[in-house]
Amino acid sequence: MNYEQAAWWLAGIIDGEGCVSCSGGARELTITNTDGKILSRVRGALIILGVDDWYEHWEELPNRKPCCRICVTGRKRLEILARLPLQSDKKEKFASLLASYKRSPVCTDSPATQSA
C-alpha cells in the first residue's frame, strides 16, 4: 500500500469505525474492531502515514468477540490524521479537537469533541 492508498483506506476506516474524542484530559482517535486483518492494515497504514506511536487495548467480554482498540494521541500524530480525506463529520471533530490545544494543554470533556 502506498501513501495515497493508505490515506484513503484509513480515512474510510476512521469515518466508519473511528471515534474522535476529548475525554479524561486526553485527545485521541480510537478505532475499535474485532477483525485481525483490518487491525493489521490499520497499523500498517498508520506507519506509512508517519504516525509513529499508538497504544492498543484488547478486551474480552462474555458472549462477545474479543475486540481491540487502537488509540492515537499526541498533537503531531492527530494533525497527520486530520489531513486525511475524511468524508464524515470526523473532519470537523478533528478540527475542533486540534483547536482545543490553543485553549488549554489539558482537554476538557465537550460535546463538540465527542464522536462515535
**Fourth CATH level, the homologous superfamily:** Homing endonucleases
- Mean pLDDT figure: 88
User: Which architecture would the CATH scheme give at its second level?
Assistant: Roll
How is the largest sheet built, in terms of strand order? 1-2-4-3
The helix/strand class is alpha+beta
Number of domains: 1
Helix-strand pattern, N to C? HEEHEEHH
Largest sheet: 4 strands, antiparallel
Bulk shape: globular
How are the SSEs placed, and which strands pair?
Blueprint (H helix, E strand, L loop, with lengths): L2 H15 E6 L2 E8 L2 H14 L5 E5 L7 E7 L1 H8 L7 H14 L13
Antiparallel strand pairs: 1-2, 2-4, 3-4
Helix pairs in contact: 1-2, 3-4
Structure description:
The structure is a single chain. The protein has helices at 3-17, 36-49, 75-82, 90-103; strands at 18-23, 26-33, 55-59, 67-73. It is of the alpha+beta class and 116 residues long. The chain has one domain: Roll (Endonuclease I-creI). Strand 1 (18-23) and strand 2 (26-33) form a beta hairpin. The chain is globular and about 40 Å long. The model is unreliable at 111-116 (pLDDT under 50).
Provide a compact summary of the structure.
With 116 residues, the protein is of the alpha+beta class. Helices cover 44% and strands 22% of the residues.
Jot down its keywords.
four-stranded antiparallel beta sheet; single chain; alpha+beta; 116 residues; Endonuclease I-creI; 4 helices; 4 strands; 22% strand; disordered C terminus
